[in-house]
């Protein structure tokens, strides 16, 4: 994979999607992405990384209070509740124009450079999906 350009003109629109689902059974049902690492919530760290690679950012979540997590971000709800991460991805594809770049909200250290590289690779090759290996 080639190194992405730090500043470039993208050909296609891309929406960054914070996948904020799951029941967090191992954590007693708490919303993982709202937990803090130092002074920052995991949600905010993921949002910042996506913001450096995508044209806009949304949250994919079904929780009733999801609109309160980050009031400036639109919330996309699954068409089929309980369908897991794939339901969030499909709902995001249906609700947005162009490509989607998805990141689970409990991966706060995802590098923005990786997200830009994934987007660039998808554009260069006209890929339906791009996965890091």
Structural description of this entry:
With 133 residues, the protein is an alpha/beta fold. The chain has one domain: Spore Coat Polysaccharide Biosynthesis Protein SpsA, Chain A (Alpha-Beta Complex), CATH 3.90.550. It is 30% helix and 17% strand. Strands 5-4-1-6 form a four-stranded parallel beta sheet, sandwiched between helices. A two-stranded antiparallel sheet has the order 2-3.
Determine the mean pLDDT.
89
- The percent range for strand residues is 15-25%
Order of helices and strands: EEEHEHEHEH
What is the approximate shape? Answer: globular
User: Could you say which structural class the secondary elements and strand pairing correspond to?
Assistant: alpha/beta
Which stretches are poorly predicted, pLDDT < 50 over at least 5 residues? none
Rg over alpha carbons: 15 Å
Distance between the termini: 10 Å
Work out the helicity level.
25-40%
CATH architecture: Alpha-Beta Complex
Under CATH, the topology can be stated as: Spore Coat Polysaccharide Biosynthesis Protein SpsA, Chain A
Q: What name goes with the CATH superfamily?
A: Spore Coat Polysaccharide Biosynthesis Protein SpsA, Chain A
Please state how the strands of the largest beta sheet are arranged side by side. 5-4-1-6
Specify the CATH class: Alpha Beta
Number of helices: 4
Count of individual beta strands: 6
Main sheet properties: 4 strands, parallel
Query: Structurally, how many domains make up the residues?
Result: 1
